[in-house]
Amino acid sequence: MMNKIKRFALVIFLYVGMQQAYSQTYKFKTSGFSVLEKNNKEKWGKWSDLNLVNILVTLDTNKNRFVVYSQIVQLFEIVEYIPVQENDTDIVYSFTCKDNNGLDCTISIITRKLQENRKQLYITYDDHIILYNIFNM
User: Fold this and answer.
1) pTM of this prediction?
2) How far apart are CA 121 and CA 106, in angstroms?
3) Where are the domains of the chain?
4) CA 119, CA 129: separation in Å to the nearest integer?
5) What is the model's pLDDT at position 41?
6) 76, 107 Cβ separation under 8 angstroms
7) Is pLDDT of 9 > 60?
8) Which residues pair with residue 32 across a beta bridge?
9) pLDDT at 40
10) Residues 35, 129 contacting (CB under 8 angstroms)
């Protein structure tokens, strides 16, 4: 009987420990943002001037969501985790998401290897892209 209790406690401990290991919350601060929009001819325009902004962004893998704490809180439900892509210049973590209006988008966290590992967050829709310069908290 005591061995069963010990085994059960061990299984529970390992399960909780594994959940903690694979479920994490990542926090970022932004330092600036820019927007790129398609024009009426469906061609990409130019990036807007970089605006300084200091807001919190979280990636919660336990709740499968991104939250951008801008003036209007933006909530993105992660629908799919896309495999990491890496090349000589970048490491890209991408996620297929739905925003709080139900619109599809892709969120990518890009580490620029040749720029002292600078990080950027891209929120890409069909007709516009929002770029945030970010750093780990």
Assistant:
1) 0.81
2) 10
3) 24-136
4) 16
5) 82
6) yes
7) no
8) 52, 133
9) 83
10) yes
**Contact of 124 with 108, CB cutoff 8 Å:** yes
d(CA 56, CA 59): 10
CA distance linking residue 44 with residue 127, whole number of Å: 8
Token reading at 42 = 């469906």
Mean pLDDT of 30-49: 93
- pLDDT exceeds cutoff 60 at 53: yes
The helix/strand/coil state of 46 is: coil
The 10s digit of each residue's pLDDT in 70-115 is 999 999 999 999 999 999 999 999 999 999 999 999 999 999 999 9
Residues 6+ apart with CB under 8 A from 41: none
Read off the tokens for 64: 């499968």
Is 57 within 8 Å of 66 (Cβ atoms)? yes
Nearest 10 degrees: Cα torsion 23, 71, 51, 99: 50
Q: What are 3's two structure tokens? A: 């061995």
Question: Any idea which residue has 């290991």 for tokens?
Answer: 21
